């Protein structure tokens, strides 16, 4: 029931017919070809050799699309259902090329590797849901082709981003750790730290009672943690997107959300109002620094931009809480 609420208007992957799976694969290959061609254009000025690699990959995706269309015509005729990634629950989404510019060779390589890993996951899951021999053979071949693309660093000649096979494996493991734990945990920490500022400080300045303020903070933090955890679990089963276990992601999001709120609620166990409020304010500053550090360390967000985004949001919510509490 919760999953349906958060995915209204979307189909479940396991409910797709074999024709619809082929249609989804066709549109996905078409989109990926366009993205690779955009990467090639973005890199052509500084990395002409790498741009040629992405042009070849775009051509290969177009070849895959042709194979899929030929199979669809053979089995189901010329009318291909219009099914795209955005129509499917938990299906991975691609960022438009213009959102990630300027393109660096390292950033582009990482995005392409993630694309190929997600495409491989899709074909492996699609293979399990088909019975036709020709369809299974083609999907298996495409899964193998996408797996071969995962060594993209070597296809770029090791000239721009040198790394050994062991480093590549560690990089894949690191990316999975970020997708499964860091991203949902960071979202939870930001939500818990920022969203609970208003109710906690509003209660503090409205009542002047540290115990009542603590109870408000405790309920807001625990409630937000439960909500964020269930939202993360229900929004994506992780099968197609490759983001990992929904239970692990939900646990990371829920726990970090609760901790983010409890950080500045716990000081109100101190009976003296101004002592508790001063410590809570210091804790908020520490939370903002921690969020900024995680964004910079794991998400590669520049220090100044990360600090500005978190500090601005926190300051606005804090101010709202104080104003409401003094009203």
Description:
The structure is a single chain. With 327 residues, the protein is mainly alpha-helical. The protein has 2 domains: 2-162, Ferritin (Up-down Bundle); 168-325, no CATH class. 73% of the residues lie in helices and 0% in strands. The chain has helices at 2-6, 18-43, 48-76, 105-128, 133-148, 152-155, 165-195, 197-207, 210-235, 246-262, 273-298, 303-325.
Q: What's the quick description here?
A:
Helix content is 73%, strand content 0%. The chain has helices spanning 2-6, 18-43, 48-76, 105-128, 133-148, 152-155, 165-195, 197-207, 210-235, 246-262, 273-298, 303-325. Residues 1-6 have low confidence and may be disordered.
Topology diagram in text:
Layout: H1 2-6, H2 18-43, H3 48-76, H4 105-128, H5 133-148, H6 152-155, H7 165-195, H8 197-207, H9 210-235, H10 246-262, H11 273-298, H12 303-325
Helix pairs in contact: 2-3, 2-4, 3-5, 4-5, 7-9, 7-10, 7-11, 7-12, 8-9, 8-12, 9-10, 11-12
């Amino acid at each position: 029931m919760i999953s349906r609420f958060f995915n209204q208007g979307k189909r479940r992957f396991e409910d797709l017919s074999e024709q619809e799976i082929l249609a989804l694969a066709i549109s996905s290959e078409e989109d990926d070809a366009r993205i690779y061609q955009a990467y090639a254009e973005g890199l052509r000025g500084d990395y002409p050799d790498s741009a040629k690699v992405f042009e070849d990959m775009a051509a290969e995706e177009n070849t895959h699309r042709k194979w899929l269309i030929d199979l669809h015509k053979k089995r189901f005729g010329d009318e291909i259902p219009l099914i795209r990634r955005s129509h499917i629950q938990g299906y991975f989404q691609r960022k438009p090329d213009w959102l990630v510019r300027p393109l660096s060779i390292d950033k582009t390589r990482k995005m392409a590797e993630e694309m190929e890993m997600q495409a491989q996951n899709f074909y492996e899951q699609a293979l399990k849901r088909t019975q036709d021999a020709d369809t299974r053979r083609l999907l298996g071949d495409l899964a193998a082709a996408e797996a071969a693309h995962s060594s993209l660093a070597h296809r770029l000649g090791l000239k721009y981003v040198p790394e050994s096979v062991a480093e590549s494996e560690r990089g894949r493991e690191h990316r999975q750790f970020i997708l499964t734990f860091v991203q949902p945990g960071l979202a939870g920490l930001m939500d818990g730290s920022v969203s609970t500022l208003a109710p906690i400080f509003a209660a503090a300045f409205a009542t002047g009672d540290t115990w009542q303020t603590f109870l408000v903070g405790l309920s807001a933090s625990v409630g937000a943690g439960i909500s964020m955890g269930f939202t993360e679990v229900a929004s994506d089963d992780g099968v197609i997107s490759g983001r990992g276990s929904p239970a692990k992601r939900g646990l990371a999001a829920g726990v970090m959300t609760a901790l983010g709120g409890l950080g500045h609620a716990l000081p109100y166990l101190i009976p003296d109002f101004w002592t508790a409020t001063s410590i809570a304010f210091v804790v908020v500053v520490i939370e903002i620094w921690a969020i900024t550090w995680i964004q910079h360390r794991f998400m590669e967000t520049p220090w100044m931009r990360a600090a500005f985004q978190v500090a601005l949001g926190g300051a606005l919510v804090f101010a709202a809480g104080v104003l409401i509490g003094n009203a």
